[in-house]
Specification:
The protein is mostly beta strands. It contains 5 helices and 29 strands. The protein has one domain (about 10-445): Capsule assembly protein Wzi (Porin, Beta Barrel). The strands form 6 sheets. The protein has an 18-stranded antiparallel beta sheet that branches. The chain has a 3-stranded antiparallel beta sheet with strand order 1-4-5, with no helix packed on it. A two-stranded antiparallel sheet has the order 11-12.
Length: about 450
C-alpha cells in the first residue's frame, strides 16, 4: 500500500506448488487507492526553506503524493520459483524481505516498499557446525523508480524549478545477511547484514556486482566527491530467554562505512542508526492458555552531525544514487523514513492466533530536515511529532482470519510549520492536525 488519503484496498491471493526439489509460489498483489488531495508542505514557507527541502528530497525518491487522482497498480507480490536442497534454496523472487531482529522497523530490509525482483541464495533451516548454527541470504535484484516529483506541484525560486529530475535508470541492489547462533549461549543470535545499490549503467565488473567489504566508489565533483554507490550495513543481536518468555534485541547500522574503525570507536554516533527492543510474555489465564504480551521498541535514524547533513549524508538519502534507498517511491528499510525517530509501546492479550491490544507511539518526522533547514535561524522548535493511540486485533474462525486497527494521530507542528503570532518571533502557534485511520482485513486459509 502507499501513503495516501482516502479509501485504499489491497487484494492478494495465490497458490503454492511443490514437486521434488522445485517449489513455485504465485501470490500477486493489487493496490487501489483514492489518493485524495491533502495539505502537504506549506507554501507559505520562505523560498530558502523550500530550497533546503529539495536539497534532501531531490536525493531520495519519496513523493509526498503518488500523482493526482486514483492510484492503481498490480505487482507480482509474494511470488517465487525456487530449487530447494537440504538446508539451501536458490531461486528468483519478488517476495518482501525482512532482515534483522526489529518488529516495528528494520534498518535494511522491511515490508514497507513493494517487493522487488531478485535472485536469492538462502538457507531454509539452520546449518549446524562445531561452533553453532548459521543462517543467511545473499541477493541480487533490480529496483524501480516511482516516476513522481517530491511535491505536487513543483516549486520555483527566481524562475528556476527547485526540483532536479532524477536519472531515469534502473538500480542494481546486492546484499547479504548472516546470523550465528553460538552453541555455548542459549537463545543468543548475532548477525551482520549489508546492502549496496548503484545505477545499472555504471556496473562494469565483479566488484560492482558483489561490492561487499570493498571501499565505496566515488566520482569527482566541484565541492566534494559523490558516492557512486549507496551502501548500508548493520550488526545486530537477539537474545531470547525461554524460561522467562522474554527477549531483547538491538541493531546498529552505519551509512556507507565512511569512517575508519578508530573513528567509529571515537565517534559512534556519526552516520549511525539503531533499533532497540524488548518483549515479555506474561501468563494471564493459564487454564485457557491466555497471555499478556508487552513490546517496547525504539528506532532512531536522526543524524547527530550537522556537517554530515550539509554534505548530503543521511540514512536512505544519496547524492550519487539519487533515488536513495527506495523501491517504487517507498523506503526499503525502516518505514518511518530518513531522519526520523519512533518509540512504540504495545500491550496485547494473546490466545493462540487471537490477539487484542493497544499501542502508543511517538513518531518524529525527519528531524534531519529541521536541523538542516533552520540551522541559520537557529529555529529548532519546528519538530513535526505525531502522538498516536491505536487499538488493534486479530481473530480466527475456522479457516478465516480477521484483523482490524483503529488509530488516532495528533500531529504537532504538521509539516514543520508554525503559524505567525503578530510581531513576536518567539511565541508562535503550532499547526496541529488530527488524523483517524481505520484498517480492516480478512484472509482465508485453504
Amino acid at each position: 500500500m502507499i501513503p495516501a488519503v482516502g479509501l485504499q484496498t489491497q487484494l492478494s491471493g495465490g497458490i503454492f506448488l511443490k514437486y521434488g526439489i522445485l517449489s513455485v509460489q504465485f501470490r500477486p498483489e493489487v493496490v487501489v487507492a483514492e489518493n485524495n488531495d491533502f495539505e502537504n508542505f506549506n507554501h507559505n514557507q520562505y523560498d530558502v526553506i523550500f530550497g533546503r527541502y529539495y536539497d534532501i528530497y531531490n536525493n531520495v525518491d519519496l513523493p509526498v503524493q503518488f500523482g493526482t487522482g486514483t492510484y492503481s497498480r498490480a505487482y507480482w507480490g509474494q511470488s517465487s520459483v525456487r530449487i530447494n536442497y537440504k538446508s539451501v534454496s536458490f531461486g528468483v523472487s519478488t517476495e518482501n524481505l525482512w532482515w534483522g531482529p526489529g518488529i516495528r522497523n528494520s534498518l535494511l530490509m522491511s515490508n514497507t516498499a513493494p517487493g522487488f525482483k531478485h535472485l536469492t541464495l538462502n538457507t531454509i533451516k539452520p546449518i549446524k557446525t562445531a561452533i553453532g548454527s548459521f543462517e543467511g541470504q545473499i541477493i541480487a535484484g533490480r529496483l524501480e523508480n516511482s516516476g513522481y516529483a517530491p511535491l505536487q506541484p513543483d516549486h520555483y525560486f527566481f524562475g528556476t524549478n527547485l526540483y532536479v529530475p532524477k536519472p531515469d535508470n534502473w538500480r542494481y541492489l546486492s546484499g547479504f545477511i548472516v546470523t550465528w547462533h553460538p552453541k555455548w549461549v542459549s537463545g543468543l543470535f548475532l548477525g551482520y547484514d549489508q546492502s549496496s545499490q548503484a545505477y545499472g549503467n555504471t556496473l562494469s565488473g565483479i566488484k560492482d556486482y558483489l561490492p561487499f567489504f570493498s571501499p565505496v566508489k566515488t566520482v569527482s565533483a566541484p565541492d566534494q566527491p559523490i558516492d557512486k554507490q549507496n551502501r548500508l550495513s548493520a550488526a545486530f543481536m537477539r537474545w531470547v530467554w525461554n524460561k522467562e518468555h522474554a527477549e531483547v534485541y538491538f541493531e546498529f547500522g552505519h551509512y556507507n562505512n565512511p569512517l575508519s574503525f578508530l573513528e567509529t570507536l571515537l565517534q559512534p554516533e556519526r552516520l549511525r542508526a539503531y533499533i532497540f527492543g524488548l518483549r515479555k510474555l506474561m501468563p494471564f489465564n493459564a487454564a485457557r492458555n491466555e497471555h499478556i504480551l508487552i513490546s517496547l521498541e525504539a528506532t532512531e535514524l536522526q543524524e547527530t552531525n550537522i556537517s554530515d547533513l550539509i554534505a548530503g549524508k543521511e540514512w536512505y538519502v544519496s547524492n550519487g544514487v539519487r533515488q536513495g534507498y527506495t523501491n517504487r517511491g517507498e523506503v526499503l528499510g525502516a518505514g518511518i523514513g530518513p531522519g526520523a525517530n519512533l518509540q512504540s509501546l504495545d500491550v496485547s492479550w494473546v490466545r493462540g492466533l487471537k490477539r487484542l491490544g493497544i499501542q502508543l507511539e511517538r513518531y518524529v518526522h525527519n528531524d534531519d530536515y529541521v536541523y538542516y533547514a533552520f540551522s541559520d535561524s537557529k529555529d529548532y522548535s519546528r519538530h513535526w511529532v505525531d502522538l498516536s493511540l491505536a487499538a488493534s486485533g486479530e481473530w480466527n474462525y475456522k479457516n478465516l482470519i480477521f484483523n482490524g486497527k483503529i488509530q488516532g494521530i495528533q500531529s504537532l507542528d504538521y509539516q514543520w510549520y508554525l503559524k505567525g503570532n503578530g510581531n513576536d518571533p518567539y511565541f508562535v502557534n503550532q499547526t496541529s492536525k488530527f488524523n483517524l485511520q481505520i484498517q480492516a482485513g480478512a484472509s482465508y486459509r485453504f
